[in-house]
Design goal:
The protein is of the alpha/beta class. 36% of the residues lie in helices and 29% in strands. The chain folds into two domains: 3-247, 3-Layer(aba) Sandwich (Rossmann fold); 254-342, ACT domain (Alpha-Beta Plaits, 2-Layer Sandwich). The protein binds adenosine-5'-triphosphate (ATP).
Amino acid sequence: MTPIIRFDGVHKTFGEGPRAVHAVEDVTLDIHEGEIFGVIGYSGAGKSTLVRLVNGLERASSGTVWVDGHTVSSLSEKQLRPLRTDIGMVFQQFNLFSSKSVAENVAYPLRVAGWDAERRRARVAELLQFVGLSDKAEARPAELSGGQKQRVGIARALASHPKILLADEATSALDPETTREVLGLLRRVNSELGLTIVVITHEMDVVKYLCDRVAVMEHGRVVEMGAVYDVFSHPQQEATRRFVGTSLRDRPSPEVLARLAASHPGTLVTVAVQEDTGSSARIMRTFADREVDGAIVYGGITEIGERPFGSLTLALTGEPAAIDQALAELRRFTTVEDYPSLAGRERS
Ligand SMILES: Nc1ncnc2c1ncn2[C@@H]1O[C@H](COP(=O)(O)OP(=O)(O)OP(=O)(O)O)[C@@H](O)[C@H]1O
Protein backbone atom coordinates (compact mmCIF):
# COMPACT_ATOMS: atom_id res chain seq x y z
CA MET A 1 0.00 0.00 0.00
CA THR A 2 1.61 3.25 -1.16
CA PRO A 3 0.48 6.36 0.72
CA ILE A 4 -0.51 9.27 -1.52
CA ILE A 5 -1.66 11.54 1.32
CA ARG A 6 -0.09 11.58 4.76
CA PHE A 7 -1.01 13.61 7.85
CA ASP A 8 1.58 13.61 10.59
CA GLY A 9 0.64 15.22 13.91
CA VAL A 10 -1.47 17.87 12.15
CA HIS A 11 -3.18 20.66 14.06
CA LYS A 12 -5.27 23.46 12.58
CA THR A 13 -6.41 26.26 14.85
CA PHE A 14 -8.52 29.23 13.77
CA GLY A 15 -8.10 32.40 15.80
CA GLU A 16 -6.12 32.87 18.97
CA GLY A 17 -6.44 32.94 22.73
CA PRO A 18 -9.69 32.02 24.45
CA ARG A 19 -11.65 32.27 21.18
CA ALA A 20 -9.36 29.87 19.30
CA VAL A 21 -11.15 27.02 17.49
CA HIS A 22 -9.20 23.78 17.30
CA ALA A 23 -10.70 22.52 14.05
CA VAL A 24 -8.18 19.70 13.55
CA GLU A 25 -6.23 18.25 16.46
CA ASP A 26 -3.26 15.93 16.26
CA VAL A 27 -4.32 13.96 13.18
CA THR A 28 -1.95 11.30 11.93
CA LEU A 29 -3.13 9.09 9.08
CA ASP A 30 -2.22 7.71 5.66
CA ILE A 31 -4.50 7.55 2.63
CA HIS A 32 -3.37 4.92 0.15
CA GLU A 33 -3.05 5.35 -3.58
CA GLY A 34 -6.15 4.00 -5.34
CA GLU A 35 -8.42 3.71 -2.32
CA ILE A 36 -11.69 5.41 -1.49
CA PHE A 37 -11.23 6.89 1.95
CA GLY A 38 -14.18 8.23 3.93
CA VAL A 39 -14.11 10.90 6.61
CA ILE A 40 -17.30 10.89 8.66
CA GLY A 41 -18.37 13.11 11.52
CA TYR A 42 -21.09 15.44 12.73
CA SER A 43 -21.23 19.09 11.71
CA GLY A 44 -18.23 20.99 13.06
CA ALA A 45 -16.10 17.87 13.60
CA GLY A 46 -13.36 19.27 11.34
CA LYS A 47 -13.91 17.19 8.19
CA SER A 48 -13.88 20.05 5.68
CA THR A 49 -10.85 21.60 7.31
CA LEU A 50 -9.05 18.26 7.12
CA VAL A 51 -9.56 17.92 3.35
CA ARG A 52 -8.85 21.59 2.69
CA LEU A 53 -5.43 20.96 4.22
CA VAL A 54 -4.82 18.45 1.40
CA ASN A 55 -4.99 21.00 -1.40
CA GLY A 56 -3.55 23.83 0.65
CA LEU A 57 -6.79 25.82 0.88
CA GLU A 58 -6.00 25.76 4.60
CA ARG A 59 -2.50 25.67 6.09
CA ALA A 60 -1.63 23.46 9.05
CA SER A 61 -0.88 25.33 12.28
CA SER A 62 1.58 22.56 13.12
CA GLY A 63 2.47 19.10 11.85
CA THR A 64 3.03 17.96 8.27
CA VAL A 65 0.64 17.34 5.38
CA TRP A 66 2.28 15.38 2.59
CA VAL A 67 0.61 14.81 -0.80
CA ASP A 68 2.14 12.78 -3.60
CA GLY A 69 5.75 13.62 -2.82
CA HIS A 70 5.15 17.23 -1.73
CA THR A 71 5.06 18.69 1.75
CA VAL A 72 1.96 20.83 1.21
CA SER A 73 2.33 22.56 4.54
CA SER A 74 5.59 24.20 3.43
CA LEU A 75 4.75 25.13 -0.20
CA SER A 76 4.17 28.71 -1.33
CA GLU A 77 0.94 29.63 -3.17
CA LYS A 78 2.88 29.53 -6.45
CA GLN A 79 4.39 26.11 -5.70
CA LEU A 80 0.92 24.82 -4.78
CA ARG A 81 -0.54 25.58 -8.22
CA PRO A 82 0.83 22.55 -10.11
CA LEU A 83 -0.08 20.29 -7.19
CA ARG A 84 -3.65 21.59 -7.24
CA THR A 85 -4.09 20.43 -10.83
CA ASP A 86 -3.45 16.92 -9.49
CA ILE A 87 -6.30 17.31 -7.01
CA GLY A 88 -9.90 17.69 -8.19
CA MET A 89 -12.67 18.77 -5.86
CA VAL A 90 -16.46 18.36 -5.84
CA PHE A 91 -18.76 20.32 -3.57
CA GLN A 92 -22.17 19.88 -1.98
CA GLN A 93 -23.59 22.93 -3.76
CA PHE A 94 -21.95 22.02 -7.11
CA ASN A 95 -20.40 25.53 -7.53
CA LEU A 96 -21.22 25.77 -11.24
CA PHE A 97 -21.26 29.03 -13.21
CA SER A 98 -24.96 29.59 -13.86
CA SER A 99 -24.36 31.79 -16.93
CA LYS A 100 -22.09 29.25 -18.65
CA SER A 101 -23.17 26.13 -20.51
CA VAL A 102 -22.35 22.66 -19.22
CA ALA A 103 -19.49 22.37 -21.73
CA GLU A 104 -18.10 25.78 -20.73
CA ASN A 105 -18.25 24.84 -17.04
CA VAL A 106 -16.30 21.64 -17.66
CA ALA A 107 -13.82 23.47 -19.90
CA TYR A 108 -13.20 26.25 -17.37
CA PRO A 109 -10.20 24.72 -15.50
CA LEU A 110 -8.65 23.79 -18.87
CA ARG A 111 -9.03 27.38 -20.09
CA VAL A 112 -7.34 28.62 -16.89
CA ALA A 113 -4.55 26.06 -17.42
CA GLY A 114 -4.00 27.41 -20.93
CA TRP A 115 -5.25 24.48 -23.03
CA ASP A 116 -6.02 25.50 -26.64
CA ALA A 117 -9.60 25.39 -27.94
CA GLU A 118 -9.18 22.17 -29.92
CA ARG A 119 -7.77 20.18 -26.99
CA ARG A 120 -10.41 21.63 -24.68
CA ARG A 121 -13.21 20.57 -27.01
CA ALA A 122 -11.91 17.01 -27.28
CA ARG A 123 -11.40 16.67 -23.51
CA VAL A 124 -14.83 18.11 -22.68
CA ALA A 125 -16.52 15.70 -25.11
CA GLU A 126 -14.67 12.79 -23.50
CA LEU A 127 -15.62 13.90 -19.98
CA LEU A 128 -19.29 14.50 -20.81
CA GLN A 129 -19.45 11.05 -22.32
CA PHE A 130 -17.89 9.55 -19.19
CA VAL A 131 -20.49 11.18 -16.92
CA GLY A 132 -23.36 10.46 -19.36
CA LEU A 133 -24.20 14.06 -20.24
CA SER A 134 -23.10 14.38 -23.89
CA ASP A 135 -26.60 15.51 -24.83
CA LYS A 136 -26.55 18.35 -22.28
CA ALA A 137 -23.36 20.07 -23.47
CA GLU A 138 -25.19 23.27 -24.41
CA ALA A 139 -27.63 23.32 -21.48
CA ARG A 140 -27.33 25.81 -18.62
CA PRO A 141 -27.04 24.47 -15.05
CA ALA A 142 -30.56 25.75 -14.24
CA GLU A 143 -31.96 23.27 -16.78
CA LEU A 144 -30.38 20.30 -15.00
CA SER A 145 -31.48 18.12 -12.07
CA GLY A 146 -29.35 18.03 -8.91
CA GLY A 147 -27.78 14.73 -9.92
CA GLN A 148 -26.94 16.06 -13.39
CA LYS A 149 -25.39 19.20 -11.86
CA GLN A 150 -23.18 17.06 -9.65
CA ARG A 151 -22.15 14.98 -12.66
CA VAL A 152 -21.05 18.23 -14.34
CA GLY A 153 -19.16 19.07 -11.13
CA ILE A 154 -17.41 15.71 -11.27
CA ALA A 155 -16.58 16.10 -14.99
CA ARG A 156 -15.08 19.53 -14.26
CA ALA A 157 -13.07 18.15 -11.33
CA LEU A 158 -11.65 15.43 -13.58
CA ALA A 159 -10.80 17.77 -16.46
CA SER A 160 -7.06 18.08 -15.97
CA HIS A 161 -6.48 14.38 -15.17
CA PRO A 162 -6.04 14.67 -11.40
CA LYS A 163 -4.74 11.76 -9.32
CA ILE A 164 -6.85 12.63 -6.29
CA LEU A 165 -10.51 13.61 -6.01
CA LEU A 166 -11.80 15.33 -2.87
CA ALA A 167 -15.58 15.05 -2.51
CA ASP A 168 -16.99 17.32 0.22
CA GLU A 169 -20.56 16.19 1.00
CA ALA A 170 -21.00 15.60 -2.73
CA THR A 171 -24.38 13.90 -2.31
CA SER A 172 -25.80 15.72 0.71
CA ALA A 173 -28.06 17.92 -1.40
CA LEU A 174 -29.46 14.98 -3.38
CA ASP A 175 -32.37 12.59 -2.89
CA PRO A 176 -31.58 8.91 -2.16
CA GLU A 177 -31.97 7.68 -5.75
CA THR A 178 -29.83 10.46 -7.22
CA THR A 179 -27.32 9.89 -4.42
CA ARG A 180 -26.93 6.28 -5.57
CA GLU A 181 -26.38 7.43 -9.15
CA VAL A 182 -23.67 9.91 -8.15
CA LEU A 183 -22.00 7.42 -5.79
CA GLY A 184 -22.00 4.91 -8.65
CA LEU A 185 -20.22 7.46 -10.82
CA LEU A 186 -17.62 8.09 -8.08
CA ARG A 187 -17.02 4.34 -7.92
CA ARG A 188 -16.34 4.35 -11.67
CA VAL A 189 -13.97 7.30 -11.27
CA ASN A 190 -12.05 5.12 -8.83
CA SER A 191 -12.20 1.78 -10.63
CA GLU A 192 -11.97 2.91 -14.28
CA LEU A 193 -9.77 6.00 -13.97
CA GLY A 194 -7.80 4.89 -10.91
CA LEU A 195 -8.21 8.06 -8.84
CA THR A 196 -7.76 8.05 -5.09
CA ILE A 197 -10.95 9.53 -3.63
CA VAL A 198 -11.42 11.21 -0.26
CA VAL A 199 -15.09 11.44 0.63
CA ILE A 200 -16.38 13.70 3.40
CA THR A 201 -19.81 12.83 4.65
CA HIS A 202 -22.09 12.72 7.67
CA GLU A 203 -23.95 9.70 6.24
CA MET A 204 -22.80 6.20 7.09
CA ASP A 205 -24.76 4.90 4.06
CA VAL A 206 -22.30 6.75 1.81
CA VAL A 207 -19.38 5.15 3.65
CA LYS A 208 -21.04 1.72 3.46
CA TYR A 209 -21.66 1.93 -0.27
CA LEU A 210 -18.49 3.64 -1.41
CA CYS A 211 -15.50 3.52 0.91
CA ASP A 212 -12.70 1.04 1.54
CA ARG A 213 -11.60 2.64 4.79
CA VAL A 214 -13.07 5.29 7.03
CA ALA A 215 -11.92 7.75 9.69
CA VAL A 216 -14.47 8.93 12.25
CA MET A 217 -13.89 12.52 13.41
CA GLU A 218 -15.15 14.13 16.59
CA HIS A 219 -14.11 17.56 17.93
CA GLY A 220 -11.20 17.81 15.49
CA ARG A 221 -9.75 14.40 16.31
CA VAL A 222 -9.83 11.11 14.46
CA VAL A 223 -11.40 8.90 17.12
CA GLU A 224 -11.60 5.71 15.09
CA MET A 225 -10.22 4.48 11.78
CA GLY A 226 -10.19 1.22 9.87
CA ALA A 227 -11.57 -0.93 7.06
CA VAL A 228 -15.26 -0.16 6.63
CA TYR A 229 -16.38 -3.73 7.43
CA ASP A 230 -14.35 -3.76 10.66
CA VAL A 231 -15.66 -0.39 11.78
CA PHE A 232 -19.25 -1.53 11.12
CA SER A 233 -18.80 -4.88 12.84
CA HIS A 234 -16.76 -3.68 15.85
CA PRO A 235 -17.36 0.03 16.40
CA GLN A 236 -15.22 1.16 19.33
CA GLN A 237 -16.55 4.64 20.02
CA GLU A 238 -20.02 5.84 20.92
CA ALA A 239 -20.04 8.26 17.95
CA THR A 240 -19.18 5.40 15.60
CA ARG A 241 -21.91 3.21 17.07
CA ARG A 242 -24.43 5.97 16.44
CA PHE A 243 -23.33 6.36 12.81
CA VAL A 244 -23.46 2.59 12.28
CA GLY A 245 -26.93 2.47 13.87
CA THR A 246 -28.30 5.12 11.51
CA SER A 247 -27.11 3.18 8.50
CA LEU A 248 -28.17 -0.31 9.44
CA ARG A 249 -31.48 0.29 11.22
CA ASP A 250 -31.43 -3.43 11.97
CA ARG A 251 -31.86 -3.24 15.75
CA PRO A 252 -35.20 -2.51 17.41
CA SER A 253 -35.50 0.63 19.54
CA PRO A 254 -36.55 0.17 23.21
CA GLU A 255 -40.15 1.10 22.25
CA VAL A 256 -40.23 -1.44 19.43
CA LEU A 257 -38.73 -4.08 21.72
CA ALA A 258 -41.44 -3.50 24.32
CA ARG A 259 -44.09 -3.87 21.61
CA LEU A 260 -42.47 -7.04 20.26
CA ALA A 261 -42.26 -8.49 23.76
CA ALA A 262 -45.96 -7.84 24.28
CA SER A 263 -47.05 -9.35 21.00
CA HIS A 264 -44.75 -12.39 20.63
CA PRO A 265 -44.44 -15.37 22.94
CA GLY A 266 -40.95 -16.36 24.10
CA THR A 267 -37.60 -14.82 24.89
CA LEU A 268 -36.34 -11.98 22.72
CA VAL A 269 -32.72 -11.90 21.65
CA THR A 270 -30.77 -10.05 18.96
CA VAL A 271 -28.06 -12.06 17.22
CA ALA A 272 -25.35 -10.47 15.07
CA VAL A 273 -25.02 -11.84 11.54
CA GLN A 274 -21.50 -11.60 10.15
CA GLU A 275 -19.64 -13.37 7.42
CA ASP A 276 -16.82 -14.91 9.44
CA THR A 277 -18.40 -15.40 12.81
CA GLY A 278 -22.13 -15.78 12.53
CA SER A 279 -23.72 -16.77 9.24
CA SER A 280 -27.50 -16.90 9.48
CA ALA A 281 -27.48 -20.61 8.50
CA ARG A 282 -25.24 -21.44 11.45
CA ILE A 283 -27.43 -19.41 13.81
CA MET A 284 -30.64 -21.14 12.71
CA ARG A 285 -28.97 -24.57 12.89
CA THR A 286 -27.92 -23.91 16.48
CA PHE A 287 -31.55 -23.39 17.44
CA ALA A 288 -32.83 -26.32 15.39
CA ASP A 289 -30.27 -28.72 16.95
CA ARG A 290 -31.71 -27.98 20.39
CA GLU A 291 -35.33 -27.96 19.29
CA VAL A 292 -35.68 -24.26 20.02
CA ASP A 293 -38.09 -22.38 17.79
CA GLY A 294 -36.80 -19.00 16.67
CA ALA A 295 -39.35 -16.70 15.05
CA ILE A 296 -37.67 -13.75 13.33
CA VAL A 297 -39.48 -10.65 14.52
CA TYR A 298 -37.10 -7.86 13.49
CA GLY A 299 -33.78 -7.42 11.74
CA GLY A 300 -31.83 -6.45 8.72
CA ILE A 301 -28.91 -7.88 6.80
CA THR A 302 -27.02 -5.76 4.34
CA GLU A 303 -23.80 -6.04 2.40
CA ILE A 304 -20.66 -4.10 3.22
CA GLY A 305 -17.88 -4.57 0.70
CA GLU A 306 -19.89 -7.50 -0.68
CA ARG A 307 -19.85 -9.24 2.73
CA PRO A 308 -23.05 -9.88 4.70
CA PHE A 309 -23.61 -7.89 7.86
CA GLY A 310 -26.50 -7.13 10.21
CA SER A 311 -28.58 -8.73 12.92
CA LEU A 312 -31.73 -10.72 13.55
CA THR A 313 -34.06 -10.32 16.51
CA LEU A 314 -35.79 -13.57 17.38
CA ALA A 315 -38.54 -14.65 19.73
CA LEU A 316 -37.37 -18.01 21.15
CA THR A 317 -39.71 -20.69 22.41
CA GLY A 318 -38.79 -24.13 23.77
CA GLU A 319 -37.44 -25.71 26.95
CA PRO A 320 -35.78 -22.97 29.06
CA ALA A 321 -32.67 -25.15 29.53
CA ALA A 322 -32.46 -25.74 25.75
CA ILE A 323 -32.77 -22.00 25.08
CA ASP A 324 -29.97 -21.30 27.57
CA GLN A 325 -27.78 -23.94 25.90
CA ALA A 326 -28.46 -22.57 22.42
CA LEU A 327 -27.60 -19.03 23.51
CA ALA A 328 -24.39 -20.22 25.20
CA GLU A 329 -23.44 -22.03 21.98
CA LEU A 330 -24.22 -18.93 19.86
CA ARG A 331 -22.09 -16.74 22.12
CA ARG A 332 -19.11 -18.90 21.22
CA PHE A 333 -19.16 -17.58 17.64
CA THR A 334 -21.23 -14.39 17.50
CA THR A 335 -22.65 -11.57 19.61
CA VAL A 336 -25.98 -12.12 21.33
CA GLU A 337 -27.88 -9.38 23.07
CA ASP A 338 -30.66 -10.36 25.45
CA TYR A 339 -33.09 -8.13 27.25
CA PRO A 340 -33.40 -9.08 30.93
CA SER A 341 -35.41 -5.92 31.65
CA LEU A 342 -38.16 -7.21 29.35
CA ALA A 343 -38.37 -10.57 31.08
CA GLY A 344 -41.40 -9.66 33.18
CA ARG A 345 -43.26 -8.29 30.15
CA GLU A 346 -42.64 -11.19 27.81
CA ARG A 347 -45.39 -13.72 27.35
CA SER A 348 -44.26 -17.30 27.83
N1 LIG B 1 -12.15 29.91 8.41
C1 LIG B 1 -12.55 29.60 9.66
N2 LIG B 1 -12.46 30.49 10.67
C2 LIG B 1 -12.84 30.18 11.92
N3 LIG B 1 -13.35 28.98 12.28
C3 LIG B 1 -13.48 28.05 11.32
C4 LIG B 1 -13.09 28.30 9.95
N4 LIG B 1 -13.33 27.18 9.21
C5 LIG B 1 -13.85 26.27 10.08
N5 LIG B 1 -13.94 26.79 11.32
C6 LIG B 1 -14.42 26.09 12.53
O1 LIG B 1 -13.71 24.87 12.65
C7 LIG B 1 -14.56 23.84 13.11
C8 LIG B 1 -14.55 22.68 12.12
O2 LIG B 1 -15.20 23.11 10.91
P1 LIG B 1 -15.32 22.20 9.61
O3 LIG B 1 -16.06 22.99 8.58
O4 LIG B 1 -14.01 21.65 9.28
O5 LIG B 1 -16.23 21.02 10.17
P2 LIG B 1 -17.09 19.95 9.35
O6 LIG B 1 -16.94 18.69 10.12
O7 LIG B 1 -16.68 19.95 7.94
O8 LIG B 1 -18.54 20.52 9.51
P3 LIG B 1 -19.71 20.71 8.40
O9 LIG B 1 -20.14 19.32 8.05
O10 LIG B 1 -20.75 21.49 9.13
O11 LIG B 1 -19.07 21.44 7.27
C9 LIG B 1 -15.93 24.45 13.32
O12 LIG B 1 -16.05 24.81 14.68
C10 LIG B 1 -15.87 25.69 12.44
O13 LIG B 1 -16.73 26.69 12.94
